[in-house]
Design a protein that fits this description.
Layout lengths: L1 H8 L7 H93 L4 H36 L21 H5 L7 H40 L5 H10 L1 H24 L52 H45 L5 H36 L21 H5 L8 H39 L5 H36 L15
Helix pairs in contact: 2-3, 2-6, 2-7, 3-6, 3-11, 5-7, 8-9, 8-12, 9-12, 11-12
Length: about 525
């Protein structure tokens, strides 16, 4: 450009002076305009990469925020799906218990053997235990959800989202909607959806087949071809396929939600549970007078629940509680080991009797095979708990630098330190730090309910074992029937012991939060080496 301007300004010899002066002014003006434009172009060229980088960074931050929000939404969706599964399982267990109770009442009114009535009592007690356990799990899940998401789920009736228009029609269509680095995750999520669809179809077939079988059994019972005991046994297994179908449906919805989250199409209105009144009431899970975490007893409303401090125990209480729980776990393993050893001895003794009868030609070979299966299972159970106990003792010694010399459980006496009611307990903690205490108290109530039902189950199982022995004496039961009854009795005792352990552990948490747990509460009161 400089060369061009110089050439334009060079005057010819024949050009008048006035013309040369005008040309010079024009050239200088043009040069100024060109220089200004050139500088502006250079300035824009220098700033454009910076602006581009800023734009890309802003877009990346926005994408990360959207991805973070989608991840949180997917977690909330999964949490609500789990609550819905527990809620529907609770309803199924409750209906089963009602059906069993009706059958049991009919058995008591009709001509039935006392032994059959005892066996029906066992089935009824077992169903009661399962219902209480599901209720406890649901209650704990609702409380945990309320504490984490600061909202209360009033019902767990599933509101299935409608995804027909948003869900991709094919795997190829889905892959076009995700970034290259997310294609592997998308493929995994897609295969998970297809697997869930297959499982769902199988569960539908199984449920339909059992519906047909149940109708047939009901007709047989009406024509007196099926006993009430047989019908009661059918009622105990019937809801399980339906529960498995609900579980398969839950897994399918969760898998589809994962796909929608990857392609950015999951929305807040897809959440399965909404906090409003529904047909499935959870009032039966809440004890009268028992508060919600967000009720006035905590001094907070749902809007400011997140600002509540928790009632954290002091470090000394935390360490003591950890040690208490570790010893309690060891105690459970020790008692389980004792029960399993008793089971194995019973199985060996009965197996030898059955085999001897078969060798003499007075017993069936099929009974020997059944007894061999029971014997093998009890042997495996004992080996597993033996390994767990050895590992637990070694871990405790390495962590706490003391050896457990004896493992006989010494139950602590908490009568003088245990609060008489929730109201009394809440008076012991600051008004703004009651959430953890309420959760711990609810856990105690649930554990206590499970223990009560487990006690009932163990007693009825013991009565059933006695009834089996009486029936064996008159030839109506075999030795294998006696063996299986004895195994079930010991299993019920193990479950009762576990329920008792859970209750003690739950109470220890409450005392630790109140600052009332002491070293002499430890289950194993021996000194370190």
């Amino acid at each position: 450009m400089t060369a061009i301007l110089a050439r334009m300004m060079r005057p010819a010899d024949s050009t008048p002076l006035k013309s040369r002066t005008s040309r010079g002014a024009c050239v200088l003006g043009l040069a100024a305009v060109l220089m200004i434009a050139s500088c502006a172009q250079l300035a824009v060229g220098a700033d454009s990469p910076v602006e581009a980088r800023k734009t890309v960074a802003a877009q990346e931050r926005q994408r990360e925020r959207q991805q973070h929000d989608t991840t949180l939404l997917l977690e909330r969706f999964s949490a609500q799906m789990q609550l819905s599964l527990l809620g529907q399982t609770h309803v199924a267990r409750q209906r089963r218990l009602q059906a069993l109770q009706k059958t049991f009442d009919q058995m008591k009114e009709g001509p039935v053997l006392r032994s059959d009535l005892t066996i029906a009592e066992v089935i009824l007690a077992k169903a009661s235990v399962e219902l209480v356990k599901v209720a406890a799990a649901l209650k704990a899940g609702l409380t945990s959800y309320e504490a984490h998401y600061h909202e209360r789920i009033e019902n767990t009736e599933l509101v299935a989202p409608v995804w027909d228009k948003r869900f991709p029609a094919s795997k190829e269509a889905m892959l076009e909607m995700v970034r290259q680095e997310d294609k592997s995750k998308a493929l995994t999520a897609w295969h998970r959806v297809q697997d869930a669809i297959s499982i769902m179809a199988q569960q539908d077939q199984q449920t339909e087949a059992l519906d047909t079988a149940r109708t047939s059994y009901a007709q047989q019972f009406a024509s007196r071809q099926l006993t009430l005991r047989g019908l009661a046994a059918l009622e105990i297994i019937y809801p399980d396929p339906r529960i498995e179908r609900v579980r398969a449906h839950t897994e399918l919805l969760k898998a589809k939600a994962a796909v929608l989250a990857l392609i950015g199409r999951l929305r807040s209105d897809d959440l399965p549970s909404v906090p409003k009144a529904g047909t499935v009431s959870l009032g039966l899970l809440v004890d009268p007078g028992e508060p919600s975490l967000t009720s006035n007893v905590l001094g907070a409303s749902p809007a400011n629940f997140s600002k509540l401090p928790t009632q954290a125990p002091i470090p000394a209480q935390i360490n003591l509680l950890d040690r208490f729980s570790a010893q309690l776990q060891l105690s459970q393993l020790v008692q389980t080991h004792t029960f399993r050893r008793e089971q194995l001895q019973t199985a060996k003794r009965t197996f030898e009797q059955i085999k001897l009868r078969s060798d003499r030609g007075v017993g069936r070979r099929a009974d020997v095979d059944r007894a061999a299966v029971v014997l093998a299972k009890t042997n495996i159970d004992l080996l597993e708990v033996d390994a767990a106990l050895a590992s637990g003792l070694a871990s405790y010694e390495a962590h706490y630098h003391e050896r457990i010399e004896r493992t006989k459980l010494v139950e602590p006496d908490w009568a003088d330190r245990w609060p008489a009611s929730m109201a009394e307990m809440l008076e012991m903690v600051p008004e703004g730090g009651r959430s953890e205490v309420v959760i711990a108290w609810q856990r105690v109530r649930s554990a206590d309910n499970i223990l009560v039902q487990q006690d009932r189950h163990t007693k009825t199982q013991n009565a059933a074992s006695i009834a089996h022995n009486q029936l064996f004496s008159i030839g109506r039961r075999t030795l294998v029937d006696l063996l299986e009854s004895d195994i079930e009795l010991i299993d019920s005792r193990i479950e009762r012991m576990r329920a008792q352990t859970e209750l003690l552990n739950a109470k220890a948490v409450v005392l630790a939060l109140l600052g009332r747990l002491r070293t002499d509460d430890l289950p194993f009161r021996n000194k370190g080496r």
